[in-house]
Amino acid sequence: MDADVSDSPGPPADPDRPDHSAGDEPVDGARDASGAEPRAGEDGTWAARPEPVPGRRRHWLRWTALAASFLVLVAAGVGWWLYNKLDDNITTDTGAAAELKAYEKERPLPIAHDAQNILLIGSDTRSGDNSAYGRDDGGSQRSDTTILLHLAADRRSATAVSIPRDLMAEIPSCHTKDGKATKEQFAQFNWAFELGGTACTIRTIEKMTGIRVDHHMVIDFAGFKDMVDAVDGVEVCLKKPVDDADAHLKLPAGRQKLDGEEALGYVRARKSIGNGSDTERMDRQQKFLGALVNKMQSNGVLLNPTRLYPVLDAATKSLTTDPDLDSLRDLYDLVRGMRNVPTEKVQFLTVPRQAYRADANRDELVQPDADRLFAQLRKDEPVAVVPADKARSGDSQPDHSSGEDPSGGKSAGTDGSPTPAPTYSGSNAADDLCDS
To answer: Are the C-beta atoms of 418 and 412 separated by less than 8 Å?
Structure first.
């Protein structure tokens, strides 16, 4: 007789499986005391399942992610807008580039690899925003200040050489705005800019110095004022009060901080400050530019995008450059290369000159001092600059008896011995204007 199915033995007991004979098997859909549906834990026991994320929390996380993405897009958009704004501020001088290209064969070749020579021109045009500073002669060009800036290849020094506007120079045949060719002539230097603009000025400089000009920048009165305001003014010292209606300047004696408008009057004033000579005015301009560089470096402007933006905005709005320097990226690379130059190595001097023999109101180069200076810059060799009262009167040559190079470097003489760099009267950006 067959055995009863109910009496047949079941499968062998699993020692790792819980015994649910006492009613421990959970009923599908059952909840524990907390209301959570139980689940099997890692130890094989039944534990409460984690409470699912409420719908509100999921919505909050989703909105947070969306908001963060939106802010990133806005920041990127604002950054792109600011970049393009600064980029669009810059005016490109394509005319000068075309003129220089036409005369490429007669231009000097670069000698020192990675060194750069940049011609800085301060234009005193009275057109547009500058009409308050004099009569507008139909937007005619004038070069109020011209500086040849040499950046050493190792970017550890910068030498700015002022070219007097009344210096007699050989000006080549250039082309005017309407395309007419001018005659080659021996005339005062700033005629080059008035006759043929930047290209004519560059060619005159290159003919005078034998130095290849790699880039140029032209900035007008408005741009200079805005740059000074962007760094919150620059401190100067005046030995006497100044009241100069022509320069729009009225200041007490002593130490004071000048805003942009006052700074412009300070560097432009001629008869009301010092002895009234153009020489004294150039020295004052150099020292002020040094103080401006010092202010930008000591206050961390070059390393702080928030503080650097207003300076770049001010500079670019009134800046005209060659095509190879007409973007914000190009200017940033230039500034980045200069930001590690020690302030005492940012030097300012005026090309050696004296009163022109045929006209005491004009200047001429002092030779061989001028040619020696040009040769040092051409070859990217050191130049030493010392205050006027420390320089030998009437002689820009160094004192070789000490065998020391005041510029901090050594150059080899013809006999292989160290020879000091030539020394010239000037200043550096570390100088305090109130100590002079």
So the answer is: yes
Structure-block tokens of residue 305: 């995008």
Say how far apart CA 142 and CA 145 lie, in whole Å.
Answer: 9
β-pair type (91-92, 319-321): parallel
Among candidate residues 257, 234, 256, 258, the one with its CA nearest the CA of residue 247: 258
With contact defined as beta carbons under 8 Å apart, do 266 and 236 qualify? yes
Q: Which residues pair with 168 in a beta bridge?
A: 188
| SS3 label, residue 165 | coil
- Residue corresponding to tokens 């060719």: 181
DSSP state of 67: H
Q: Residue 424: how many CA atoms within 13 Å on its side-chain side?
A: 27
User: pTM of this prediction?
Assistant: 0.73
| Structural tokens at position 244 | 């100069």
pLDDT of residue 391: 62
Please report, for residues 317, 340, 418, the alpha-carbon distance to residue 119 in angstroms, rounded to integers and kept in the order given.
18, 21, 31
Q: What is the pLDDT of residues 338-363, one digit of tens each?
A: 878 888 999 999 999 999 999 998 99
Helix, strand, coil in percent for the chain, rounding step 5? 35, 20, 40
Q: Provide CB contacts within 8 A for 32, sequence distance 6+.
A: 38, 48
DSSP β-bridge partners for residue 1: none
Q: Quick one: how far is CA 18 from the chain centroid? A: 78
Tell me how far CA of residue 269 lies from CA of 4, 24, 99, 274, 276, in angstroms.
Answer: 125, 102, 34, 9, 8
Average pLDDT over residues 3-13: 46
Phi and psi at residue 92, to the nearest 5°: -95, 130
- CA–CA separation, 353 and 262 (whole Å): 29
* Amino acid sitting at position 346: V
Mention every residue, 6+ apart, whose C-beta is less than 8 A from residue 327.
87, 90
CA dihedral of 254, 255, 257, 262, whole degrees rounded to 10: 30
- Identity at 106, one-letter amino acid code: E
Give exposure, 384-401, as e/b (b: 16+ Cβ within 10 Å): bbbeeeebeeeebebeee
For residues 322 and 93, the answer to whether their CB atoms sit within 8 Å is: yes
What would you report as the CA-atom Rg of the chain, rounded to the nearest whole angstrom? 36
Residue 120 has a CB neighbour count (10 Å cut-off) of: 17
DSSP structure string for 7-52: GS--SPP-TTS---TTTTSPPTT---TTSPPEEE-TTSSEEEPPPP
